[in-house]
C-alpha cells in the first residue's frame, strides 16, 4: 500500500471496503483515503489528493517510520496505526519546533450490561497497549476520545450512567498520570466529571495532564448538543471555564469538545488565546454528521492558523433498555455507528488521511508548530479580521430588541410588469 | 454520463482530465466530481459521494431538466451548464419556498492589451448568452463573479486599471437591469465601484438589482486580502456597509465577497441578519487556495444554516507589464490559473458538484429555503451558540492590553525526572 513520500504504517492496511461490500453498499469501507487509493490510478489518486487533502504546490504528505515495538503492539492488539509529518518552511531566526502528537480512537471493551467497574477497567486494559505504542513512538502530546472511560450512554437519558463520572483527580486521571510520567508525555483526558465541591455537578471535561504527571488544569465543554440522540443536556450544562489555552512543555494546546466543533466562535476563541494545537475529542455517528466531519476541523485549522486533532470513537454501543429517538420511529437500543475517522488538519489547509471507520487506532503526526505563525504571516487572517466590528455586532445581536440589518426591495409586492 | 437521480446537464460533459493528462500531471482535469465519476465503479463512487458531497441518509442529489433553449445556448457558446435540486422536508404549516438560483463563472474575452472599452463590452457580449440561458431556465436569482467587468488586474498594482471602476448605477448595472426586467430575475453584480460622491473612492462592491430592474442596494467587500499577488489593498479599503441582508422577491440574500470567505465572523454576521442564501463571488488561483475552496463555503453553510453559492472566475489572465510576487522569483505577467469550480453548498452539509475548472459555466440549483429553518430546528446552532460569551470575549480581545487566557504548566522548566 505504501507509496513514495507517503508511508502508511498500519496494523492491517487492507482497504476493507473495496473487498467486503455488504448488502450492495460500501458502508463498511475502512477509510475514504484507502478506498480512493485502492480504486484510482496512481496519477489520478495524486491529483485527487492534491485537492482533497490539500497537498498543493507539489508538496507530498510524508510518512514517518515508527519503532518496531509500536508496530508490534499494533499488530498484536489489532489497532490501526498511521503516522505522518506536516512540513514547515525553515526560518532564519527560529529553530523548528517539531512535536509529535497522537490521537487515540477506540470502541468500548465490554457489553454495556457488564458491571460498571468491569466496563471501566476493561477500557483501561484495552487502551494500555495503544498508549504504550504512543509512548514507544515518542509521542509528546496524546489525546483520548470524549468520555473515554464509558459507553456514550447519554442517548438513554438514564441517570444511572452518572456513576461513571469522576472528579478531575479520579481513577482515570491516576491511570494516565503513570503513563505521562513514564513517557514524558502530555495527556489530554476527556471524561464525565463529577464536581463534588459544587454539589455533585456533572460536566463534560478534558483533564490536561502534564509531562511530569501533574494536573495542569481542566476545560469544560462549552456547547452542549440537543440533536438526534445526543441527549447530553440531560446530564450536564454548558462549561464555565472559558477558552483556556494550556501552555505545556511541548506547545500551547486547547480542547474543543465534540459539538463545539460546529461553533466557529468556539474555535476562534481558542485561537485568540494563542492555541497552536486544538483537539476535538468527539463521539458522533454516521447518519448524523459524517459529511460534516472532514469539513469543520479543516475549516477551523485554516481560519485560525493552528493544527487540529479530531477524534471520534468507534463501533456500535448497545444499551440494556431500548429508547426512542424523537423521530416517531420504534424504540431501539443503540446510538448508531461511531465512525472513527480520527485525523489531523493543518493551518495550510492540508490534512492527514483518517484512521479506520471501524477499528481502534492511534494516529501520530509530527508537526512543526512554526507553521502556525508562518500561515499568519502569509494570509494575515488575524490582521484583516476587523474584530472591533464583530464585537459591536454581537453586543448588538444579544439584546432582546435586536433588529437585523435588512434592506428590503421597495417593489417587493409589485407584480412583474 | 448521467446516472439515475443525478442528471448532469452539460454542454460538454467529458471528463477532460482523465483523457488529457498534460506533462505527466492531471492539472488539466475538468472537475473533481467528473474525474471520480469516470474513474470509480458506480458502487464506490456512490459511497465516496456520500461522504464527500454529503449525500447522507440515502438521499440522492437530484438533477433538474432544463428547457431546450438553455441547452442549445450552452452547446452553441460552449459553456458548462449543470443543474441540481436540493430537497427539503414537507412542512405542515408552511408551503415549500423553492427558488431557482444561478451562478456564472467566466474568463475574460479579449487580451488585457485591448482598449478598455472593448475589453468591457466583449465581456458583456460573452455573458449575454449565459445570462439568456439563466433567464430561459427560469432562474430567479443570478450572481456574477467578482469584478466581472474587467480582468483581475489587482496583481499589477498599476492604477490605470481603476478606469474600469463604475458608479453603482453605471454601464454594467444598466446592462444587467435590462435582463432583470426581461426575466423577472434578481441579479447580483459584483464590480469595482467608483464612489464619486465620496471623492472618487474605490470599493469592491456587489450591486443588488431587483427583479423589476431597480437597484435594491449595494454591499462593499468587508475583508481585503494582502496575500500572494492579491494586491487589492492597493486599490480599495475595507467596506463600510456592514452585513446587509437584501430582502428580494425570492428570498433573503447576502454577499460575502471573495477573501471574506476566510473569515467565519463575516459569514456569521450575514447569518445573524437573517440571510438564507449567501453568495461568494470570488477570484482565486489554484496554487493559493484550491484545497480550501471546497471547505470554507460548506463550513459556512453548515454553521449558519443557509445556502452558499460560490463563484470563481476561469482562466489565466496575462498582463502587459510583468510584475514580481514578493517571493523572490523572477517577474512574470500572469496571476496563475483561476480554477472556476463554482458550486452550491446547503445547510444540511450537502453540496453540488462543481462547474469546470477551465470553461465558462452556468450552475443552477433549485433550493427550498424552508431547509434553512429546518436545519436550525434540528441542530440548534443559534440557540446553543452562547453569543453573550463571545461578545464579551471579543470586546476584551480588541483592547490593546488584552491578555490571553493561558494556563501554564508550573513544572514547565523542570527536567523530566
UniProtKB/TrEMBL annotation, chains A, B:
<dbReference type="InterPro" id="IPR003010">
    <property type="entry name" value="C-N_Hydrolase"/>
</dbReference>
<keyword id="KW-0378">Hydrolase</keyword>
<comment type="similarity">
    <text>Belongs to the carbon-nitrogen hydrolase superfamily. BUP family.</text>
</comment>
<dbReference type="InterPro" id="IPR036526">
    <property type="entry name" value="C-N_Hydrolase_sf"/>
</dbReference>
<dbReference type="GO" id="GO:0003837">
    <property type="term" value="F:beta-ureidopropionase activity"/>
</dbReference>
<feature type="domain" description="CN hydrolase">
    <location>
        <begin position="99"/>
        <end position="369"/>
    </location>
</feature>
<comment type="pathway">
    <text>Amino-acid biosynthesis; beta-alanine biosynthesis.</text>
</comment>
<dbReference type="Pfam" id="PF00795">
    <property type="entry name" value="CN_hydrolase"/>
</dbReference>
<dbReference type="GO" id="GO:0033396">
    <property type="term" value="P:beta-alanine biosynthetic process via 3-ureidopropionate"/>
</dbReference>
<dbReference type="InterPro" id="IPR050345">
    <property type="entry name" value="Aliph_Amidase/BUP"/>
</dbReference>
<protein>
    <recommendedName>
        <fullName>Beta-ureidopropionase</fullName>
        <ecNumber>3.5.1.6</ecNumber>
    </recommendedName>
</protein>
<feature type="region of interest" description="Disordered">
    <location>
        <begin position="1"/>
        <end position="22"/>
    </location>
</feature>
Amino acid at each position: 500500500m505504501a507509496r513514495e513520500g507517503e508511508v502508511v504504517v498500519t496494523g492491517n492496511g487492507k482497504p476493507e471496503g473495496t473487498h467486503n461490500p455488504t448488502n450492495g453498499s460500501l458502508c463498511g469501507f475502512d477509510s475514504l483515503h484507502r478506498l480512493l487509493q485502492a480504486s484510482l490510478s496512481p496519477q489520478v489518486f495524486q491529483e485527487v489528493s492534491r485537492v482533497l487533502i490539500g497537498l498543493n504546490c507539489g508538496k507530498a504528505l510524508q510518512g514517518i517510520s515508527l519503532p518496531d515495538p509500536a508496530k508490534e503492539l499494533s499488530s498484536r492488539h489489532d489497532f490501526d496505526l498511521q503516522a505522518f509529518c506536516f512540513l514547515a518552511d525553515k526560518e532564519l531566526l527560529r529553530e523548528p519546533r517539531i512535536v509529535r502528537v497522537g490521537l487515540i480512537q477506540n470502541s468500548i471493551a465490554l457489553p454495556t450490561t457488564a458491571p460498571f467497574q468491569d466496563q471501566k477497567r476493561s477500557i483501561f486494559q484495552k487502551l494500555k497497549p495503544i498508549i504504550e505504542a504512543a509512548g514507544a513512538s515518542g509521542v509528546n502530546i496524546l489525546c483520548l476520545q470524549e468520555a473515554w472511560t464509558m459507553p456514550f450512554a447519554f442517548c438513554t437519558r438514564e441517570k444511572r450512567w452518572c456513576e461513571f463520572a469522576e472528579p478531575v483527580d479520579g481513577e482515570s486521571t491516576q491511570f494516565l498520570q503513570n503513563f505521562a510520567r513514564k513517557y514524558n508525555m502530555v495527556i489530554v483526558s476527556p471524561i464525565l466529571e463529577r464536581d463534588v465541591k459544587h454539589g455533585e455537578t456533572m460536566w463534560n471535561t478534558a483533564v490536561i495532564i502534564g509531562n511530569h504527571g501533574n494536573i495542569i488544569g481542566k476545560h469544560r465543554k462549552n456547547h452542549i448538543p440537543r440533536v438526534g440522540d445526543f441527549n447530553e443536556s440531560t446530564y450536564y450544562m454548558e462549561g464555565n471555564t472559558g477558552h483556556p489555552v494550556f501552555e505545556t512543555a511541548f506547545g500551547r494546546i486547547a480542547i474543543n469538545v465534540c459539538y463545539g466543533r460546529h461553533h466557529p466562535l468556539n474555535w476562534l476563541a481558542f485561537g485568540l488565546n494563542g492555541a497552536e494545537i486544538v483537539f476535538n475529542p468527539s463521539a458522533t455517528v454516521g447518519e448524523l454528521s459524517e459529511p460534516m466531519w472532514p469539513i469543520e476541523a479543516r475549516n477551523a485549522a485554516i481560519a485560525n492558523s493552528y493544527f487540529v486533532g479530531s477524534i471520534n470513537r468507534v463501533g456500535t454501543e448497545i444499551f440494556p433498555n431500548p429508547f426512542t429517538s424523537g423521530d416517531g420511529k420504534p424504540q431501539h437500543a443503540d446510538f448508531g455507528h461511531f465512525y472513527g475517522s480520527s485525523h489531523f488538519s493543518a493551518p495550510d489547509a492540508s490534512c492527514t488521511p483518517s484512521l479506520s471507520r471501524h477499528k481502534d487506532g492511534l494516529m501520530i503526526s509530527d508537526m512543526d508548530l512554526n507553521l502556525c505563525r508562518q500561515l499568519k504571516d502569509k494570509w494575515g487572517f488575524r490582521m484583516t479580521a476587523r474584530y472591533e466590528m464583530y464585537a459591536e455586532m454581537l453586543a448588538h445581536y444579544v439584546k432582546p430588541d435586536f433588529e437585523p440589518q435588512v434592506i428590503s426591495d421597495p417593489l417587493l409586492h409589485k407584480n412583474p410588469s
